[in-house]
Amino acid sequence: MSGFVILIIIVGTAVGVLTLFIIKSFIAPRKIESVADLLKSGKNQQAIKAAKQILTKEPRHVDAHYLLGQAYIAEEKTELALMEFKMVNQIGKFTGLCREVPFRKQAAELYRKFGQPEEALKEYLLLIKKEPVQADHYVAIGELFEERQMSNKALPYLQKAVELNPRHAGAHLRLGILVYRKKKLLEARAELEAAIKLDPENYQANYYLGRLLKEMHEYPTALRSLEKAQRDPEYKSKSLIEAGTCYMSMNNMDRAISTLERVINLDGNTTGNELVYARYFLSLCYEKVRNIDSAIEQWEEIYAKKPSFRDVAQKLSLYQELRTDDLMKDYLTSSEEEFEQICRAITAGLKLEVRDVKTTPHGVEILAVEAEKNWRSGRSMPRLILFMRDNDMIDVSIVRSLSEMMKKNNISRGIVVTSSNFTRTAIEFAETRPIDLVNKEQLSGVLKKVKY
Known about the structure:
- There is one protein chain.
- By secondary structure, the protein is of the alpha/beta class.
- Among the domains are: 201-324, Serine Threonine Protein Phosphatase 5, Tetratricopeptide repeat (Alpha Horseshoe); 330-447, Trna Endonuclease, Chain: A, domain 1 (3-Layer(aba) Sandwich), CATH 3.40.1350.
- It is built from 22 helices and five strands.
- The protein has helices spanning 3-40, 44-57, 62-74, 78-91, 100-113, 117-130, 135-147, 151-164, 169-181, 185-198, 203-215, 219-229, 233-249, 253-265, 272-288, 292-305, 312-320, 326-333, 336-349, 396-408, 424-431, 440-447, and strands spanning 352-360, 363-370, 382-388, 413-418, 435-438.
- The chain starts with a helix and ends in a 5-residue tail after the last helix.
């Protein structure tokens, strides 16, 4: 074969290879663009099929993986989409249809959806390098740190978000919630109020502001915020519970009861935990107004779900005794007028004459004197008696307060009568002073001996 023929063969082969390369280079972009066109037309299944065909020949085709992921998202197959996005991340080339910033935003959202906060965090940290003045990225990082109970790391990112965009309502909200949990109430209030000013329909901000104002004892203002928060089904029951406890703190038991009953009667959007808290606070209201039967009903509902919840078992045990002790039940559940008559009868049973009666938040205070004059002095010796029907243990502070009142009014002896019991420190304090303590068991015995 002559050299000329060989040259022709070599040139022909080169031309053929070059032509094939040109054709392939022309066809490949057309193929991936056709996948993009199918997606734009809403032909998701065809786009999936076309993208897979490309990947069969080119397994590391970034745009094919990216568009396949987009098609899966359109078909609500987000778990499959995340797998494709992970492949894009592994390849790490963003020179075609797949642009880095929008890709990382989507990838971060998918990681968060599937409970992979570490991976989501990596995406957002890369995003702030690409877009260092985008407040949304800092907010997302702050939220991720918060979710992992790392509030100290979350704080600077949320502060940066507010600095970058003072009109970012979400940044003010997240920062407000974070500092509220740190008990920085004034700082939290400023952030939450800023969030509401920017977005008046921000019910989450209203809910947290209501809670915060309740802690600051600004009850009327708190109630206004909580009323707004109730418009959102997600925060309705939570806000009603907080409003109910506001009314309790204001000693408006009727409003507290009606508000907490609304939580129990809500259809849906009330979690089991919220119901337990609503029932518990409602039971305390019933107890306060001496509707013990209704209180017991709520405690029994709670006990059936959470036997160890707060002091519910203790409350049931205490009031169980009332079902067999009608006299103690009268002492605990009677109206204020009836209770005063019971206290007068007990005072008479102690051979004392009532001189003055005063109603207190915990019961009745009676100033009495001995029915028979002291034979030595010829004077009636005064007694100050506290009748209490709280179910909490009587602490030393109550006994000390009685001692101080006795000194102030020149009263020789004092008595504390309770339907519960006394703490050890209260008993020790009374032992060295002219104060007698009458506990639940002793009171039960006294009630059986008096008439009222």
